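[step 3/7] inverse_fold.run input=structure_tokens len=191
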């Protein structure tokens, strides 16, 4: 069933009644490091990347590029980028978020917001994800960003922020609890 919400989003905007709320998607989104051996259909992958491209960016620059990695050998190499990337080898998909530095004004923030959109859209579609920091990371004395750029052929003038693993979860984690909201961390007008 569809309903129209014109007052907020403009004429003809349609929502699917009974869909999960944004807060519910946020509660369900957990860092998943174990995945079932199932491909992510291209249609779902497109929806996930589309959500990323709806992210706001400084001055509307949209400096992002997304390298979608499915090749098992490349995923194995990416799993050695940092000490915290081992699970990338077993994920059906690894999305590498890259910034075009000619367009970037606030690339770290822009790509971080795009990453959040990826993870929330994936959660809405029933996938697990995990954020793997690449910028300012290393493994065994090797710069993680240069390592990733080398294996993926990312040219000069582009920076790597992170990688996100995506797949159907092979582990279950409970959703965040409503009790995780901490009133003492909220300050009105002043600290």
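[step 3/7] decode complete -> sequence:
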């Amino acid at each position: 069933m569809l309903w129209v919400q014109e007052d907020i989003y403009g004429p003809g905007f349609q929502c699917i009644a009974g869909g999960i709320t944004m807060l519910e998607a946020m509660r369900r989104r957990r860092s998943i490091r174990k995945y079932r051996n199932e491909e992510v259909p291209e249609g779902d992958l497109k929806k996930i990347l589309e959500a990323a491209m709806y992210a706001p960016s400084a001055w509307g620059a949209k400096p992002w590029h997304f390298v979608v990695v499915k090749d098992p050998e490349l995923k194995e190499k990416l799993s050695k980028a940092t000490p915290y990337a081992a699970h990338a080898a077993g994920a059906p998909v690894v999305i590498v978020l890259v910034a075009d530095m000619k367009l970037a004004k606030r690339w770290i923030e822009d790509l971080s917001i795009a990453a959040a959109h990826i993870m929330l859209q994936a959660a809405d579609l029933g996938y697990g994800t995990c954020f793997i920091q690449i910028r300012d990371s290393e493994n065994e004395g090797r710069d993680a960003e240069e390592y990733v750029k080398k294996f993926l052929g990312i040219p000069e003038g582009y920076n790597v922020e992170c990688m996100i693993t995506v797949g159907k979860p092979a582990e279950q984690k409970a959703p965040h609890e409503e009790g995780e909201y901490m009133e003492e961390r909220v300050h009105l007008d002043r600290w």
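[step 4/7] annotate
The chain has one domain: 31-171.
Confidence is low (pLDDT under 50) at residues 1-10, 12-18.
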